[in-house]
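note to self: dont lose this again. the chain is below, predicted strucutre after it. 237 aa total, dont forget to put it in the shared folder this time
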Amino acid sequence: MKKIISCERKKALLEFCKPLGLKFKNLEILDLAFHHCSYSNENHSEKLYNNERLEFLGDSVLGLATADFLYKDMSRTHAEGDLAKIKAVVVSEKTLAPIGLRFGIDKMLVLGHGEEMTGGRKKPAIIADCMEAIIGAYYLDSGYDACEKYVLSFIVPEIKRVQEFGGKDFKTLLQELYQKKCKQAPRYELLDVSGPDHEQKFKVNVHLGNLVYGPAEGKSKKEAEQKVAEMAYNCLK
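---
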């Protein structure tokens, strides 16, 4: 199904592409990648106009590009299980959603009214799915080589991070480091919770003995704790 794109929307799509190095020949397919199924569900004349098929395709392209890089990057002494663990981490919603927010996907999404009102624009699952849909769209538009280059631009740093930290999160890393030095556990302090129910912000500090690091903010207490743990871990290192 074709959809007429306004000049304003075309401009926004081009501005989205520029910092990411994306060069779409067909902006219509990129626009489709931002259309969540909640939009098509509420607009019956466009009930198939959503990004689910592109997401399905992009998921496979993302997996292939990541697997190929890992196969070539990690020596033959690494078993298949090691590669599989890293791949599972870097192609996950937990990894893709923050990247998508950094890219500005939330500002480009086209959502149904109900999803919009319940904070869908910031939901990790929707952001991560859109990341995969964009990959699928770029693969169809420009071919595998260009798409692989785009995928590796944001996946390789994540792979290197997981390789360095062994897939551990920063709360675990901080606890291991601090307990090794001081035989104590970090103590996290919730300072504030603000915002409406569907878009709350949590502010957290972490106490390491007499030292306090933070605050850090997140959309959940867990996310805020991870961020402040990363801050403290990098300082201690």
